Amino acid sequence: MVNKLYPDAATALDGLLFDGMHLCAGGFGLCGIPERLIDAIRESGVKDLTIASNNAGIDGEGLGKLLRTRQVRKMISSYVGENKEFERQYLAGELEVEFCPQGTLAERCRAGGAGIPGFYTKTGVGTQVAEGKEVKTFDGEDYILERGIFADVAIIKGWKADESGNLIFRKTARNFNQPMATAAKVCIAEVEEVVPTGSLDPDCIHLPGIYVKRMIIGAPYDKKIEFRTVRQREAV
């Protein structure tokens, strides 16, 4: 059996990073983000990155760390409303941004991973999303052509994996990590726990190990919350 487990994030990324590369990054907000791999990419100094990710973290967390160090040239994202540095760079013309509807972004990555170079969708028809894209009519309805996404490297966060790389995601973390994992030449998974091969119920595996080329154990983690909303304590 091929040993997929690496001692740390920097070692797992060794030989894969280069300036101008394209990354797919899993995660949803600050949930299920590959924190250790992002930190290692920041420390590597690689630059001019194009990153496909649902969002860009927040200021100083997640992919926001790479924005802060100016290592990102372009973001392909759905939602970026909580990152002030992202907003500043975009408005100043320092960051190229390709906004993409959330479902379309997930499907572009799924399609790329399935070897599908493009697909037609009604989402975005008649809006700025459709500008510059091919429009085709099916059964009297207009659809726009969206390209599949296939990157050089995918970095994802899983909950539990076996030694063969079969992976389970935990709750919301499954949203974007699963399609991102398939949409790259090499997928590196950062997980909380690795168990012996055969320990996981095959019916519970979300991502087959064939997609995972390298793994690291990133635990322990400090579970961060984007917005903490609480009620005022009532006077006794």
How far is the first residue's CA from the last residue's CA? 63 Å
Find the CATH topology.
Glutaconate Coenzyme A-transferase
Q: Can you tell me the CATH architecture?
A: 3-Layer(aba) Sandwich
Anisotropy-based shape:
globular
Describe this protein with a few key phrases.
single chain, 236 residues, alpha/beta, Glutaconate Coenzyme A-transferase, 7-stranded parallel β-sheet, 3-stranded antiparallel β-sheet, 6 helices, globular
Protein model, in words:
21% of the residues lie in helices and 25% in strands. By secondary structure, the protein is an alpha/beta fold. It has a single domain (9-217), classed as 3-Layer(aba) Sandwich (Glutaconate Coenzyme A-transferase). The strands form 3 sheets. The chain has a 7-stranded parallel beta sheet with strand order 4-3-2-1-8-11-13, sandwiched between helices. The protein has a 3-stranded antiparallel beta sheet with strand order 5-7-6. The chain has a 3-stranded mixed beta sheet with strand order 10-9-12, with no helix packed on it. The model has no long low-confidence stretch (mean pLDDT 94).
Lay out the secondary structure.
Blueprint lengths: L8 H5 L8 E4 L9 H10 L4 E4 L11 H5 L3 E6 L6 H8 L4 E4 L2 H12 L4 E4 L13 E4 L2 E7 L3 E7 L2 E3 L4 E2 L5 H9 L1 E8 L1 E3 L18 E4 L19
Parallel strand pairs: 1-2, 1-8, 2-3, 3-4, 8-11, 9-12, 11-13
Antiparallel strand pairs: 5-7, 6-7, 9-10
Helix pairs in contact: 5-6
